[in-house]
Specification:
Radius of gyration: 22 Å
Shape: globular
Structural class: alpha/beta
Strand content: 15-25%
Helix content: 25-40%
Number of strands: 22
Number of domains: 2
Distance between the termini: 8 Å
Strand order of the largest sheet: 6-5-4-3-2-1-22
Number of helices: 14
CATH topology of the largest domain: Metallo-beta-lactamase, Chain A
Largest sheet: 7 strands, mixed
Length: 463
C-alpha cells in the first residue's frame, strides 16, 4: 500500500523532504537545505533517514534552496536516479546550487581559519561544485499540465503554484492493482494577484493533500498598501541621508522589487537613488526569467512584449565582482542595495549589514519570511545588537518589516486553494511552524470541515 513519510519541514519552514513509497519504488519529494544557525547547519550534515542509493527518483516543486539545497549531498551519498521538475525550475536549480556551494565553501574557509587558531580539526563543505554538476546532470524538466509516467503504476503532473518562476503543485497518481489513489503536494503556493506570476492552479480531486502552511496564521497586508509603504520607507531614508539595504531572495523577490521600482520610478523619486542588485545569482536568474516569459501572467507578458522590461530600469546596476560589492560599503548614503541571502544567513547582504546597521541614518527593509535563528529573524525581533562575522554590531538603523510582498499565500489564500477540492480530502500540513499550522488547521476544520493533521518528522501515512 502506498504511503508518504514526512522527513523534513514538518514543524518548521526549511528542509522540505518527504518520502513516497509506491508501486515498489521510493520517490523523494524535495531534498531541501535546513536553514538557520549552527544547530541547523549541523543537522544538514547528519545522515539521511534513508539510504540515498535506495531512492529511485526525486520530484522537486521549485528552486528555492530550502527545497532543493541538499540534492548535491543526496547525489554525493549515493543517489543515482532522475530529478523531475518543471522546465524553468530545471534552469534555475543550477544557479541556486552553484551559489549555495560557493557560499558553503567561503563559510567553511572562514570558519576553518578560526578553528585552526583554536587547534580544532577543519571542516569540509557540505558539498562542492563537482557535486552540484553531478546533481544538475540528473535534472529532467517537464512542462506544466503534462502528465508523464514516472514508473509503471505511478503518473505525475505539475501545475503552476504561482510562487516563483517554475514553482509547481505536484499531482501523483498511484495504481498498485487495487484501484487508483491520488496524492497532491502543494509545494509553496503563491498569493493571488501577485505581479509577473500566474495564480496557483486550483485542483479538484485528491485522496490525500500535503499542504504548505508558512503563513497559516496571518493575513498579508494588501499589496497596494505595501507599495505605499515602500514609498514611505524610501522617503524616510532620503530624509535621514542613509542607504537602504534590502535582503532579498535571488529568485522571485528580487525580480518583484525591480518590477515595483519600474512601476513607481517617478512617484518614488528613484532618479535620486543609485539602485544595485548585488547578487551574481539574481543577475543569472533575471536571464532565466527572460527565457521563460511564456510563464508570466497576462500583464507580465504584455509588459515584456512592449519592451517595458523592469530589469533595464534607469539607475540600476548589476553588481558581479566582489570588488564592486566591496566598493558599495564605502558609500554611506544614496544607495538602494538589494542583496542575498533573503534571510541574511549568507551572501553579500551580511557585509552590507555589517557596514550599515550601526549607522542611525540607514534603513533595512525586510521583505520576506525570516526563519528562526537567522540574522534576519533577529532584526525583525528587534535585537539591539547582532553578531556578524564574529563582530558585535549595534543596530542603530531603522528596521522595516514589509509583509505584503510575500511569495506565499496567506491564511485566506490557503483556505481558498483547499476549497477547490470537491470531496474535502484529508490534509497534512507541512512547511510551517506549529503556531501557523495550528491556526490554519482550525480554520480548515471550521470553514471546510476538513480532516487535518500536523505532519511530524518520521510520521508515515497511507494514501
Amino acid at each position: 500500500m502506498a504511503s508518504i513519510q514526512f522527513l523534513g519541514a514538518a514543524g518548521e519552514i526549511t528542509g522540505s523532504c518527504h518520502l513516497l513509497r509506491a508501486a515498489g519504488k521510493k520517490i523523494l519529494l524535495e531534498c531541501g537545505l535546513i536553514q538557520g544557525g549552527r544547530e541547523e547547519d549541523a543537522r544538514n550534515r547528519e545522515s539521511f533517514p534513508f539510504d540515498p542509493a535506495d531512492i529511485d527518483a526525486v520530484i522537486l516543486s521549485h528552486a528555492h534552496i530550502d527545497h532543493c539545497g541538499r540534492l548535491p549531498l543526496l547525489v554525493k551519498r549515493g543517489f543515482q536516479g532522475k530529478i523531475h521538475t518543471q522546465t524553468a525550475t530545471a534552469d534555475l536549480v543550477p544557479v541556486m546550487l552553484e551559489d549555495s556551494a560557493r557560499l558553503a565553501a567561503a563559510d567553511v574557509e572562514h570558519g576553518n581559519r578560526l578553528r585552526a587558531r583554536r587547534g580544532l580539526k577543519p571542516l569540509e563543505p557540505l558539498y562542492e561544485l563537482a557535486d552540484v554538476s553531478d546533481a544538475v546532470a540528473r535534472l529532467k524538466g517537464h512542462d506544466y499540465d503534462q502528465c508523464f509516467e514516472l514508473y509503471p503504476g505511478i503518473s505525475v503532473r505539475l501545475q503552476d503554484a504561482g510562487h516563483i518562476l517554475g514553482a509547481a503543485i505536484v499531482e501523483i497518481w498511484v495504481d498498485e492493482g487495487s484501484g487508483e489513489r491520488k496524492l497532491v503536494f502543494s509545494g509553496d503556493l503563491g498569493p493571488s494577484g501577485a505581479p509577473i506570476m500566474r495564480d496557483a492552479t486550483p485542483i479538484a480531486d485528491a485522496d490525500l493533500v500535503l499542504m504548505e502552511s508558512t503563513y497559516g496564521d496571518r493575513l498579508h497586508r494588501p499589496r497596494d498598501q505595501t507599495i505605499v509603504e515602500i514609498g514611505e520607507v524610501l522617503d524616510a531614508a532620503r530624509g535621514s541621508g542613509g542607504n537602504v539595504i534590502i535582503p532579498a531572495f535571488a529568485v522571485g523577490r528580487s525580480q518583484e522589487l525591480l518590477y515595483w521600482f519600474a512601476r513607481n520610478y517617478d512617484e518614488w523619486g528613484l532618479k535620486r537613488w543609485k539602485i544595485y542588485l548585488d547578487s551574481p545569482m539574481a543577475t543569472k536568474v533575471v536571464d532565466v526569467y527572460r527565457r521563460h516569459q511564456q510563464l508570466f501572467d497576462r500583464d507580465g507578458r504584455h509588459q515584456w512584449s512592449n519592451g517595458d522590461d523592469p530589469f533595464t530600469l534607469p539607475g540600476l546596476s548589476f553588481v558581479s565582482s566582489m570588488e564592486e560589492s566591496q566598493a558599495l560599503n564605502r558609500r554611506d548614503h544614496g544607495c538602494i542595495i538589494i542583496a542575498g541571502s533573503g534571510m541574511c544567513n549568507g551572501g553579500r547582504v551580511r557585509h552590507h549589514l555589517k557596514h550599515n546597521l550601526w549607522r542611525p541614518g540607514a534603513h533595512v527593509m525586510i521583505v520576506g519570511y525570516q526563519a528562526q535563528h537567522t540574522l534576519g529573524r533577529q532584526l525583525v525581533d528587534g535585537r539591539s545588537t547582532v553578531r556578524i562575522f564574529n563582530e558585535i554590531i549595534r543596530v542603530n538603523a531603522r528596521i522595516h518589516t514589509v509583509g505584503g510582498l510575500s511569495a506565499h499565500a496567506d491564511q485566506q489564500g490557503l483556505l481558498n486553494w483547499y476549497g477547490h477540492f470537491h470531496a474535502r480530502p484529508p490534509v497534512y500540513l507541512v512547511h510551517g511552524e506549529d503556531q501557523a499550522r495550528e491556526s490554519l488547521a482550525g480554520k480548515l476544520r471550521a470553514v471546510h470541515g476538513a480532516e487535518v493533521s500536523l505532519a511530524r518528522a518520521g510520521m508515515e501515512r497511507t494514501i
